Every structure is written in structure tokens, then in C-alpha cells.
Amino acid sequence: MNLSRFFARRRLVYLRDLLREMVGRDMKLRYKRSLLGVAWSLLNPLAQMLVFTFVFQRLVRLDIANYSSFVFIGVLVWNWFQASLVVATGAINDNRELVKRPGFPVALLPVISVTTYLVHFLLAMPILLVFLLAGGGRLGWSFLLLPAIILLQYLLTIGLGYFLAAINVRFRDVQHLLGVALMLLFYLTPIFYDTTIVPEKYRFVYLLNPMVHLIQAYRAVLIQASLPNGLPLSLLALFTLCLLGLGYTLFKRASVRFVEEL
Amino acid sequence: MSGSITVEKISKWYRKYHAGRPETLKEALLSGLRRMQPAEQFWALQEVSFTVPSGRMLGVVGANGAGKSTLLRLVGGVGFPDRGSIRVQGRIGALLDLGAGFHPDLTGRENVFINGIISGLTRREVAERLDEIIAFSELEAFIDNPLRTYSTGMQMRLAFAVAAHIDPEVLLVDEVLAVGDLAFQRKCLDRIAQFKRSGCTILLVSHDTSTIKNLCDEALWLRRGQVAAHGPTEVVVGAYVAEMSAETRRRTPEAQPAILTPSGTELRMNQNRFGSQEISLNEVRLLSKHGFAVKELESGEALRVEIDYTASQPVSEPIFGVAITRPDDLVCYDSSNQTALKLGVLQGQGQVAVTFERLDLIGGPYFIDVGVYEREWTYAYDYHWHVYPLEIAHTRGEKGVARPPTRWEIKSL
Question: Looking at the structure, do residues B290 and B147 belong to the same domain, yes or no?
């Protein structure tokens, strides 16, 4: 029995190592032979933040305190979500040779995609903190909740990723549909505006978007130094767990056919 | 440290879909999900059972499309059988798709790391073996250069070096190993033999029957997804080869009358001539170095064999083979154009010639057997067996087959 424990443990160590190396490979490849290296993963959200700040503070005036930090959080959270979903959806098709390899844990592929962009997200965190502190903010105890919110988004994205990756093997246009859906969802998520401007009669439908609650939670703990709204987050956590279980099951069942479809 | 494979009555459907099977959601919705069903199904594998006990090596032979690779992948856990069960005990290593996960922009060392982990090692295990792997690949000088600066041969060497250090308990080998140069192939085979000596359980798929004969304890012959025979290597491989040549005979047209070749030999279908005749050999000439037709040569002289063929339809990459055999069927030398000369698509009449610079054979009667084969060796288009005799003039005081240029010396010390 100790032996089986040993093998289970080795398996976990192995999966961790594999995840780490694959994510490391993606990071290395992205910035190999580029002058600025990792700075690229910061430049993009910074540029977005500058443009949003210019448009919504100088052209259209939105009355939001600490707008740069406000919009920077939105952009970072959204970019992580969007980029991981797009890459996770193509994860099976883009890694044929790995999928066909005996012993390769295919279910790790979407996790690898989401983790890669988690690393980008975390790399931008120090910059965000600089902005927050420069904007006169201070961090309260609620900051300690940040890892939990990140974990929630991580699992939510993986769950969705399993779904999309499994369907995309059969229908290649899921990738294109996803692009359109994400673009529309971007405007329906409070990235550069605040939910207070959403009229009451649309509010119920609007709040069905899980990203609304996630971004608000991030802003609560980072900017307002207050606790996030508990009820929607708990529901979201429950939803995430169901989604993850369902997505994983679907993915596993579909994975029997991956080799034939590829 | 012992693995085993148990395969019980596994079957696997192969599904063929309509050419117009919807590729996108839109098409699927428009066609009302009707065309989603496969147009045709057949068994890629049917009721296949076998066990490979610990430390044994099973070779799988069979024609192309007989289900060999499907079987190997299923045993490796890629996909599932539609029926039956597969149990594999022990860590699986695979010598197939060498270099999966290799990336041209990463250095050799980085690629070794990632490929090792993809192959099933933990980081620590790769780190411990890194020096050994690099030494085995003989690429120390280049290991920190990006992979894109490597030649294909170097990449294969690196990939195999990683694969050779995963110390699996169950090893799956596909014939992809047939790539690379001869030295590399030999290194692969040596390493596989070494795995076997160390007690590894091995499943080897190949249509090269000699590899299987040399290495395997047992052989399994797959015919259209079913087990045609399973047992001692010699017997199974022998039966397989016999059926392959029977396949050739079956395709041989019966009704053709005996033909007299211009050089005076009678060719009779299914007696000394076999093949489907998509390409036929009209005439074969044995010539001396001066270009004269010969039936007898001195040992060590040159021989040129000219083969006139007619291809009644376009045939892509056929293989021409010329073998020197003895009346007792010993094959003294067997050679084909496969590695030496690309033929492309043949149609109409033409000539293929091969020159043996020296026939260093011991004196006696020989035959030059000439054949032209399908590009995968699955059957012969035309094969002339024991039709063209060649006498090597009597050489005195020697025994054996080969007669290398020899010099004896003596001196006192």
C-alpha cells in the first residue's frame, strides 16, 4: 500500500514538474530573441490603461476615483481571462504530437494555457501596486483575500477551457465564435466603467456575467480596501466547481476521440 | 522493476466519415446533424488478445493498415478500445514520435529538459541524467546552441538520447526508428537490445521481419485487424512472409503463356516468374565490364545487370531488387535501389541497371534473381527467380561464399 502511495505522490510531483516546464517553455519562447523580453507582457496593459485613462478622463469624463488603477485592474484581469481562454480552446489542436504520445496527461493542456497567462498576470502585479500606492491608496487586511479571488478566476477559466477545448476538436469554428463572444463580453464587463451606471432594469441579466463579480471583487480588495460582496462570490465559487467537474468530465469523454479527430 | 502487458479481446472501430462531414458548427446545424454519423465503419482491430510477460519482447508484423500502430497506441493509453480491456503494469516508455515537444528556438539542453519531462521523468530525474543524456547524444559541443542550428540527424540523435534514458518497464517501439542513417539505426537497435537485457518488457512494431527475427522472443501477426498467428518468432514470421509471397502469386495472372526471353530462358508464370505485372521485366542482361553478355565470370570480375522494363500504367517509386543466390537458395547478396537511387514515377519502357564492381564470390553456380516490387515491399510486380544463371569460374582450395582479395605473408621474427 505504501508503494501505491509512493506512485501517487510521484505522479503529483510529475504533473507539477510538467506544468512548470511547459509554462516555462511558453514563457521562454515568447520572449526569446526579443529585445524587451518580459517587459512586453507589461507594456500591453500599460498602453491600454493609458488610452482608457485619456479617453475616459479627458474626452468622456467618468467620475471614478483613482481611475488609472481602476482601469488597470480591469485590463489585467480581463487580459488574463481572454488570452487563456483563446489559447486553451486551441490547446488540443495545437499540440497534436503531445496528445498522440503515450502517457502524456492531455487534461493538463488547458491548465498549462491558463497557468501561462496567470504568470503574466502575476508579473504585472508589482506595477499595479506601484500605481495603487502612488494614487494614494493603502492596502488593508482584505488584501489577504486576493489569492482566493485569483484562485477562483483560475479555476473558472480552466473549467470553461475544458469545455471549449473539447468542442473545438470537433468544430474548429468554436475558436472564431469565441473571439466574437469575448469581444462583446469585453463591453459587458465593467473594465473601463463602473457597474453603478448600469440601469436597474438590465441589472439582473448584466450580473449573470461572472467576470462582473470577479472584477468587482478585485477592486474591492485592492482599491477600496474593503471586503468583496460575499453572496455572489460564494455562488460563483459553487458554479465554478460544478463547471470544473462538468467540463473535466466532458473533456475526458471527448478525449477518447481526440486521436481519431486530429 | 518488471512490467507486463495484458490485452484481452480488444476491438476498435475505425470510422470513415462522409467527405462532406460538417467541419464547423454552422455546417453541422445546416445539415441538421444528419451527416455526423460515420458513413462506414470497419474493425481496425478485432478480438485481439495477447500477453507479454515481464522481460519478454513481442514483435508485431503485418501489412500496412493491418492495425499495428493502432494497437501500439492503444497499449500506450492513447485512445480507448471499443471493446475489451488493456492492462499495462509498469512505467511506459515509448520510442515513437521522437522529439515531440522539441522547439527550434530553444537550446539543445532546454529541449532535453522539456522532452525528458514530456517522456515521463520528473525534473529531478532529468537533472540527474542530463550529463549522461548529453554524452550519449555526442553533442556536447553544440548543446547550448538553439536546436534550429542542428541538422536533422543531430536532432534525431538528441531525441533518441532522451528516449534511451527514461528507463521504462514497458517499452513501445514503432518503426519510426527506421529513419536516420545506418549508424543511428544500429545505435537504436543496440539500445533496444540493452533495454531487453535489463528486463524491460517490449512491444515492437515493424514490417522489417529481420529486426523482429533478431530481437523478439515471440511474434504476433496482424491481418486486417485480426490476429493471424501468435507464437515463436521463426514460425510466425515465416508464415507471414509465406503469405506475402502467396499474395504475390495471387496477383500473378495465370493465363499468360510461357515466354522465351531474348537471352534464351523460358519464363513460366508461378514457376520461375511471379508478380502482378503492373511493371513487367522484359529482358535482363548480365554483362561483363566490356559490355558483352556473359554466363560465366572469374571471381572478382565486375558484373553489370541491365533490366528492361515496361510499366503499363504509371507506378510511383517501385523498388528494383537484384539478388545473387545459390541453387540451394542461400542469398549471397541482396541489393535494391531503395537507398541508392530515387526512381520517381515510371511509365512506358525503360532500363534500370546496376553494376557490381567486384564479384568476390567463391567459384560455383549462382543465379541472379531480379525483381521489381511495390514501394512498401508488400508484393512483387514482377520477380524472376532462378532464371539467370551465372557461373563463377572454379577457385581452388577455398570454402564458403565470399572471396575477399586475400594475401598471405610470412616472415621470421
Answer: no
Alpha-carbon distance B235 to nearest alpha carbon in chain A (angstroms): 30
* pLDDT tens-digit map of B22-81: 666 666 666 655 555 655 677 888 888 888 888 889 999 888 778 888 888 888 888 788
Domain that holds residue B210: 4-243
- Whether the CB of A203 is below 8 Å from some CB of chain B: the reply is no
Query: Do B296 and B207 share a domain, yes or no?
Result: no
Q: Of B208, B243, B278, which residue sits at a domain end?
A: B243
Domain count, chain B: 2
Domain that holds residue A105: 36-261
CB distance B25–A259 less than 8 Å? no
| CA distance between the termini of chain A | 39
* Average pLDDT of the segment spanning A229-249: 93
* A256: nearest CB among B73, B79, B92: B79
Question: Distance between CA B110 and CA B307 in Å, rounded?
Answer: 52
| Residue B167: half-sphere exposure toward Cβ, Cα within 13 Å | 11
Under 8 Å between Cβ of A154 and A118: yes
User: Does any CB of chain B come closer than 8 Å to the CB of residue A6?
Assistant: no
Residue B253 located in a structural domain:
no
Q: What is the CATH number of the domain that holds B149?
A: 3.40.50.300
Find the helix packing angle between B123-137 and B152-163, rounded to 10°: 130
Q: Total domain count for chain A?
A: 1
Nearest Cα of chain B lies from the Cα of A253 at a distance, in angstroms, of 10
Q: Is the pLDDT of residue B179 over 60?
A: no
Does the structure's ipTM exceed the value 0.90? no
Within 8 A of B76 by CB-CB distance, chain A residues are 101-103
- To the nearest whole Å, the CA of B67 is away from the closest chain A CA by 14
Is residue B409 a part of any domain in this protein?
no
Helix, strand, coil content of chain B in percent (nearest 5): 25, 35, 40
Taking the Cβ of residue B113 and every Cβ of chain A, the question of whether any pair is shorter than 8 Å is answered with yes
